[in-house]
Design brief:
Strand order of the largest sheet of chain A: 1-7-6-5-2-3-4
CATH class of the largest domain in chain A: Alpha Beta
Number of strands of chain A: 7
Radius of gyration of chain A: 18 Å
Strand content of chain A: 5-15%
CATH topology of the largest domain in chain A: Rossmann fold
Shape of chain A: globular
Helix content of chain A: 40-55%
CATH architecture of the largest domain in chain A: 3-Layer(aba) Sandwich
CATH superfamily of the largest domain in chain A: Uncharacterised protein PF01937, DUF89, domain 3
Order of helices and strands of chain A: HHHHHHEHEHEHEHEHEHE
Largest sheet of chain A: 7 strands, mixed
Structural class of chain A: alpha/beta
Largest interface: A-B, 21 and 20 residues
Oligomer: homodimer
């Protein structure tokens, strides 16, 4: 999904939110706004928001000398999410369809996104999100694909959300490779964030080899691309991964909340909707006439 | 009031909103975003939002060749407002304190601002705004100043709002000079917009000599400055005029709705509040011990 012009005001808001976490120096923040302003002419019309976002955070790091402004927030998010783990585990265990409930939990975890909204209430969001109807519901296709899948990739999004991903992986009951970013970018999960959330107990942890806030294949490592190309099920969490993969032909299912109007429009739902959506450019085995 | 960094995302939003009224050419709009991005480094830390806004609209006009993108919207706003005139006139006439009610009507008229929000409902806003408490209420000082005033300037804001201004001027019952912008800027009232609203029937119409979306004295004409300096009461409508005059020492009263968080913070009220606020840097005659 390429960036829309509507993303530009949002990038400036992200700069303000993130920079103000690091510094009170308004002159420094102005410098960052200026640097991003000067970068705009070179942005290709094909660029995804994740690619531009990567540049936004590169500029912030460069100007402030702080490589990972969200480090402490990520730790706190993960700790908060871990306190919810036992209750969510019980919710899943006592549900009629454990897999579906675990998917709902994983999507609900996607509300934790400081990059877009610094103002959130986890418990309240959970209460509203868990029973929320999926605006796009490809659960049957997901279940069928999972049934035959042997090489499952799970593309992580934010720290904290990782705990919710762990609950879904525990219901998948098959080997899963959990993919995090290589370098700090917004509040996206890194290797340490996955460890903090206990992902090492349920999955193999790998890196995409990139510091883009999404999975942009041209920026990923060769090692990751090998995993990606051989996967027979890819679970993609969040907007950033969607932006990079929405046009790709691969066995991917997107689990996300459409937080902004631009993504919502591209996905084809109203803003705030949650979706479990299969790739539009891939023919899943069921559709090939395989009834297994 | 100088611009805060929080104004920058807002300028980009204004560019999108205004440009999309004129053109569907996203490449052209990107050009405008780029041009504004390139202009950011040269913006002084002392610049007011009105000064920067002026530049935003200059860039839009230059790139699109359209000098007054809001022309038709302004016409429509004025026509809409005129349909409310008889009802509002009656509301004022039947009220206990006609002047106070007319002030409330004039402030309510300030909700018409396409520059900030394209999504508005005039009737609904009026119902909510007319009884809304003034978060800052310098009505007594205003009434006292008006009583002795001989040279009254009324600084207009948006087209359409002009009709509401007319209702207040009709209650002032003294000669008033109604000041509009010299050249098109956003939806700010020009001479023709004042005529369309019937201001010529109740006031002398003058120009500030500027195309800034606010009264920035350094940008105004000599003719206007003479009027300004000799005035003994200045009624200033809206955010743009406030931005330019908030630090000046002059007998000004600001009538506005604090539509954005930046203005609200500067005025010292919560966002969405309405105020009738006297100049902070001017000693009004009452305060000098004059009890007349």
């Amino acid at each position: 999904m390429k960036a829309y012009l509507d993303c530009y005001p949002c990038f400036f808001n992200q700069i303000l939110n993130t920079s103000r976490m690091i510094t009170n120096n308004e002159g420094k923040i102005k410098e960052i706004l200026v640097a991003f302003g000067q970068f705009i002419p070179s942005i290709s019309v094909q660029a995804t928001p994740a690619e531009i976002g990567r540049e936004v955070y590169r500029i912030i790091s460069e100007k402030t000398g702080i490589e990972d402004p969200y480090r402490r927030i990520k730790k706190r998010c993960t700790q908060q999410a871990l306190t919810l783990y036992p209750k969510l585990k019980e919710t899943i265990a006592s549900s009629e369809d454990r897999l579906l409930t675990a998917i709902r939990v994983a999507i609900a975890g996607n509300v934790i996104d400081f990059g877009i909204n610094t103002d959130f209430d986890l418990d309240k969001d959970l209460e509203e999100l868990l029973p929320q109807e999926l605006a796009i519901d490809h659960y049957e296709e997901f279940r069928a694909t999972l049934k035959d899948a042997h090489r499952i990739l799970y593309l992580a999004d934010n720290a904290g959300e990782t705990v919710f991903d762990r609950l879904l992986i525990e219901e998948i009951r098959k080997p899963v490779i959990y993919v995090v970013r290589e370098n700090p970018i917004i509040n996206d999960a890194l290797y340490q964030d996955a460890l903090d959330a206990g992902l090492d107990k349920v999955a193999e942890i790998a890196s995409s080899g990139t510091d883009a806030p999404g999975t942009i294949l041209s920026m990923c490592s060769k090692e990751f691309l090998k995993l990606f190309q051989s996967a027979d099920l890819i679970i993609s969490k969040g907007q950033g991964n969607y932006e990079g993969l929405s046009e790709e032909s691969c066995p991917v299912f997107f689990l996300l909340k459409a937080k902004c109007s631009v993504i919502a429009r591209d996905v084809g739902v109203t803003q705030g909707s949650i979706v479990l959506k299969k790739a539009k450019n891939y023919e899943f085995s069921r559709e090939k006439g395989d009834t297994s």
